[in-house]
């Protein structure tokens, strides 16, 4: 791979924020400071997705639609903040060799935490209320939020009060063996053998090796992401949530797509043997008896209508959908006693990421929004901004949006809005939460 393949905008000096403030809020900030008034506008902080290897603070969409939605009732509106965080090897290199050389695993999570702390400490200067901060993110952004909620096992609190986690995605990487293999593969691409040698190379060399490693990732994978490090991530989030080791005061909204898995499903993983090999490839050290249980009991090869799939490829899609995305919502819902707001985005085809143009819908036709159903975008943004402003998505003129509750129900947002059973509440996700493979 030549350096010409590297995005010219790419730099490790990337830790910047965008702060977008309605004029009335900004104009009133100085007077509130002079009067020592603590109240201010609600704030939402966006964490973008991209498999922990791609994306940027401005890449998800224009937040003007969200801000306008927050002003629909005549209020001043919300403040929108978007952060960058380091990606790929720059943000997620991990393992014993890195730590022995004085490196820090999960640098991307620390970047996010620093940005959130900055918002807490300084947003009042822009007219925002540091006690009304919602963190929102999709895919890797949603997965990052799960890790922020469980950071330090819940011992240090969090610099936000609410969270909206959309399609939270991450692989449960607890094995130092896996972390070390990824690090050694990166060093090999650099033609060095130690972290110290890598530190003496140019940033361009590091970016090229990172791009090569990410490009060579398995089908549907990205090589990098959060890992158990014993500090920021003392254990897998599913384990921490189950043990009550998380920030319990946070108000939570979660979502998932109608079908998260197709983009990430290798077309050649269909038979039992192929699914077993896929599990072992992605989770080295996964005990064979557990592999057998997953393949034979959790996702049996029965296509007679008794399961949620009727073909081998649909079985693999469900496996990836649950293990990489939707079970993460189950873990959150259960941890908060089902006192959460849950929705499924079901506008066809309902694939991963298809909700982002709706989250950032602003009424302006673009290539990204072509074919969108405008009323759905308006409805979704109304639910989101109601939650950001009040901690409750309900509002005048909208279909009811109850908490998930003991019956584990959710709003299905499609061409219509219906109340349905939450499909993340199932025994398969309950089994994955045990993390017996870790």
Automatic annotation (TrEMBL):
Enzyme's top EC category: hydrolase
Keywords: Hydrolase
UniProt-listed Enzyme Commission number(s): 3.1.1.-
SUPFAM superfamilies: alpha/beta-Hydrolases
A Pfam entry, by short name: COesterase
Residues annotated as domain Carboxylesterase type B: 10-432
GO MF annotation: an example: hydrolase activity
Family affiliation: Belongs to the type-B carboxylesterase/lipase family.
Protein name: Carboxylic ester hydrolase
């Amino acid at each position: 791979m030549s350096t010409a393949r590297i995005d010219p905008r790419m730099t490790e000096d990337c830790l910047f924020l965008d702060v977008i403030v309605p004029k009335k809020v900004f104009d009133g900030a100085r007077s509130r400071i002079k009067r020592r008034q603590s109240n201010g506008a609600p704030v939402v902080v966006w964490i973008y997705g991209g498999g922990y290897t791609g994306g940027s603070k401005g890449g998800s969409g224009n937040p003007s639609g969200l801000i306008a939605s927050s002003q629909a009732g005549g209020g001043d509106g919300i403040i929108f903040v978007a952060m960058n965080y380091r990606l790929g090897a720059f943000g997620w290199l991990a393992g014993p060799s890195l730590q022995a050389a004085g490196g820090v695993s999960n640098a991307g999570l620390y970047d996010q935490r620093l940005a959130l702390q900055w918002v807490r400490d300084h947003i009042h200067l822009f007219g925002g209320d540091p006690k009304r901060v919602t963190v929102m993110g999709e895919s890797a952004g949603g997965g990052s939020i799960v890790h922020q909620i469980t950071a330090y096992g819940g011992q240090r609190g969090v610099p936000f009060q609410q969270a909206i986690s959309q399609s939270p995605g991450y692989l449960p990487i607890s094995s130092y063996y896996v972390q070390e293999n990824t690090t050694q593969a990166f060093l090999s691409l650099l033609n060095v053998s130690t972290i110290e040698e890598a530190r003496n190379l140019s940033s361009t060399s590091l970016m090229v090796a990172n791009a090569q490693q990410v490009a060579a990732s398995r089908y549907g994978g990205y090589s990098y992401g959060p890992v158990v490090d014993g500090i920021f991530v003392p254990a897998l989030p599913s384990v921490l949530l189950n043990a009550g080791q998380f920030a319990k005061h946070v108000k939570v909204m979660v979502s998932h797509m109608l079908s998260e898995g197709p983009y990430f499903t290798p077309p050649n993983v269909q038979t039992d043997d192929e699914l077993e090999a896929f599990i072992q490839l992605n989770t080295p050290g996964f005990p064979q008896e557990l592999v057998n249980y997953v393949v034979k009991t959790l996702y049996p090869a029965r296509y007679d209508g008794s399961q949620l799939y009727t073909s081998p490829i649909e079985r693999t899609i469900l496996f990836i959908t649950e293990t990489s995305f939707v079970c993460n919502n189950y873990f959150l819902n259960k941890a908060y006693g089902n006192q959460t707001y849950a929705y499924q985005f079901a506008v066809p085809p309902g694939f991963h990421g298809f909700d982002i143009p709706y989250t950032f819908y602003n009424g302006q036709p673009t290539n990204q929004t072509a074919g969108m159903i405008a009323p759905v975008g308006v409805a979704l943004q109304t639910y989101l901004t109601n939650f950001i402003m009040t901690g409750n998505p309900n509002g005048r003129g909208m279909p009811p949006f109850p908490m998930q509750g003991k019956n584990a129900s959710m709003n299905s947002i499609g061409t219509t809005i219906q109340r349905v059973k939450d499909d993340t509440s199932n025994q398969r996700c309950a089994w994955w939460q045990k993390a017996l493979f870790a």
